[in-house]
Write a structure and sequence with these properties.
There is one protein chain. The chain is mainly β. The protein is built from 5 helices and 60 strands. The strands form 2 sheets. The chain has a 46-stranded mixed sheet that branches. Strands 24, 27, 28, 31, 34, 37, 40, 43, 46, 49, 52, 54, 56 and 59 form a 14-stranded parallel sheet that branches. It is elongated, with a radius of gyration of 37 Å. InterPro entries: Beta_helix, PbH1, Pectin_lyas_fold, Pectin_lyase_fold/virulence.
Length: 583
């Protein structure tokens, strides 16, 4: 009858009344109601531990301590609640839920080498540790799961709430976190809103979420490893003043690290590897700085900034993924500084819906596309792109794209611009040793200044109007090609081609001023090539050094032939008979 009455009161009022606060049974019943009505619940209070079964106070133990050691609970609660399986003094099995009330604490220390939490067949039979305005200190031990197996088992979790402190030092937590639609607060190990603490030298293995900071304050993460999480490895959401020094997330079932909800934060010392999703995923936020991030073989991408305003990625090292660094989503304004990106499908992707982006310095190598610019107001300065199928692509809704001092080496195609883009400018761009075309442009109004293209089948292929100023072309099979109907202007061009200098197809027109074109067929095609100013058209320079070398070789052959002819009748010298070693 008492249980029914208190259950009704808890359902109506939701919190303990003054009468309940003074009555241990009523207070325990309210706690039992709030925590999901577990079969067995240990309520730890300062100096007191209550054993609650099915909502009823079964027994009370007087600890006389604010912070209770786990070994004390083993001695004083009984094996049905917390015991030592098989009599092993270094192993403890927890068979009940544990609630840390305000002002209380629990310490799990080095004496207990392993703590086994019993997985339940239902949420009522599950085990967990929760608390608020309390402390939980875990050191030099392993927290693991035992009990029922299979996909339906209810896994344990640890969750610290407002005003609480959770510290995990030199310990391992494995197999934790409710699955399915359970609250994210119970997804493994969680520092909740208003809590604090640390994880130092800790490992989190096979949890639903390795560890989660959700509204916490001042949590320290140092030398933390998260592996084989079922979902995200690490979630940092709405946390403040978090300190990170050495955080590794590997083989996560979703993303390696998810960051969001906190403005103007800096994160460094993070490594992700082999995530099924993205290595680091930044959700909408302002002022995020990612410094020195490393991502290896994260299958969904290395770093993704989603609607991230005034965000900066500095010194990122990413390899072996789909997109090494992606900036996407409305309102995105991002800066990527000195990246080291390799072996990915796309090095840097700047999507159509962003507001602006800047890339400075760094290298991109061994990708199918080095840099893909699809959004507006993008600036790329001083970046080197090497050994890609396409070095740099400007496409989609790109407009006002400015490329300065970019170097593209050893790619199949150096750079492409599509017909959907406008106001694209290249200044000081160098394209060398491409096996295909150096620059292919269908962007109307393309402007190229102080550029240099060498070693291409066609150095510049224009399918839209363009302005070329002070462009140098060397070592190309064909210098400049204009497709039918294109109009272009060139000033101070210097074209040295192996076969064709400038070729204009039918209906195409190019005006060249104060330029030099040197090729066996300097000007060709059915279009018009109009020369102005001091434009010079000549054959390529004669290779005098090579000719001299060939002449010297031919002279040597001739002299040797004359020598052999003159001495063809000269008898061979005879060897004296007493000489035997003539072999």
């Amino acid at each position: 009858m008492a249980v029914a009455v208190f259950t009704a009161l808890a359902a109506v009022f939701g919190t303990a009344s003054p009468a309940q606060a003074s009555d241990p049974a009523a207070s325990d019943l309210a706690a039992w109601q709030r925590t999901g009505q577990p079969d067995r619940l240990l309520v730890v209070r300062p100096g007191v531990v209550d054993l609650v079964r099915h909502g009823m106070l079964e027994s009370r133990r007087i600890s006389g301590m604010g912070v209770v050691p786990l070994s004390w609970l083993v001695r004083n609660t009984g094996s049905e609640w917390i015991g030592r399986p098989g009599g092993d003094l270094s192993v403890v099995q927890i068979r009940s839920a544990v609630l840390l009330s305000p002002g209380s604490g629990l310490r799990i220390g080095a004496v207990t080498r392993k703590v086994l939490f019993t997985a339940g067949d239902s949420t009522a039979s599950a085990t967990w540790i929760r608390g608020s305005r309390a402390t939980l200190d875990i050191r030099d031990t392993t927290l693991a799961v035992t009990g029922s197996a299979g996909a339906t088992r209810v896994r344990p979790y640890i969750s610290m709430g407002a005003g609480g402190r959770l510290d995990i030092t030199d310990s391992t937590v494995s197999g934790f976190g409710l699955t399915g639609r359970a609250s994210s607060r119970f997804s493994g190990v969680t520092w909740g809103r208003g809590s604090t603490g640390s994880a130092v030298g800790a490992r989190f293995e096979g949890n639903r979420t390795g560890l989660r900071l959700e509204g916490s304050t001042g949590v320290r993460l140092d030398k933390v490893t998260v592996e084989h999480s079922l979902q995200d490895g690490v979630v940092l959401s709405g946390d403040t003043k978090t300190s990170v020094a050495g955080l590794a997330s590997r083989s996560s079932g979703r993303h390696g690290v998810v960051v969001g909800g906190t403005p103007d934060r800096t994160l460094s010392g993070i490594t992700t590897e082999d995530s099924a999703g993205v290595g680091i995923r930044a959700t909408p936020q302002n002022g995020l700085v990612l410094d020195g991030i490393q991502s290896r073989s994260d299958r969904g991408g290395g770093i993704r900034l989603l609607s991230c305003a005034e965000c900066t990625v500095t010194g990122a090292a990413v390899r072996g993924t789909q997109v090494a660094v992606a900036v996407t989503g409305p309102g995105s304004r991002a800066v990527v500084k000195a990246p080291r990106l390799s072996g990915s499908r796309t090095g840097i992707s700047l999507d159509e819906d962003i507001e602006s982006a800047t890339v400075t310095g760094g290298t991109v190598s061994g990708c199918q596309r080095g840099i893909a610019v699809a959004g507006p107001r993008v600036t790329v300065t001083g970046t080197r792109i090497e050994s890609c199928l396409t070095g740099l692509s400007v496409n989609g809704k790109a407009r006002h794209a400015a490329l300065h001092e970019v170097r593209i080496d050893d790619c199949r195609t150096g750079m492409t611009t599509s017909a959907t883009t406008t106001d694209v400018s290249l200044t000081g761009v160098q394209v060398t040793n491409t096996s295909g075309k150096g620059l292919v442009s269908a962007s109307p109004g393309l402007r190229v200044t102080d550029g240099h293209v060498s070693g291409a089948s066609t150095a510049i292929d224009l399918a839209a109007p363009a302005l070329l100023d002070k462009v140098t072309i060397t070592g190309a099979h064909r210098g400049i090609h204009l497709t039918p109907g294109v109009r272009a202007t060139g000033t101070a061009l210097d074209v040295l081609a192996e076969r064709k200098g400038i070729e204009a197809d039918r209906g195409a027109v190019i005006d060249i001023t104060d330029s030099r074109v040197r090729a066996p067929l300097a000007l060709g095609g059915a279009g018009r090539i109009l020369r102005h100013g001091r434009t010079v058209v000549t054959l390529p320079p004669f290779p005098w050094l090579g000719a001299a070398a060939i002449l010297a070789l031919l002279t040597a052959i001739a002299l040797q032939t004359v020598h052999q002819v003159r001495h063809r009748h000269t008898p061979r010298p005879q060897v004296p008979r007493h000489v035997r070693n003539t072999a």
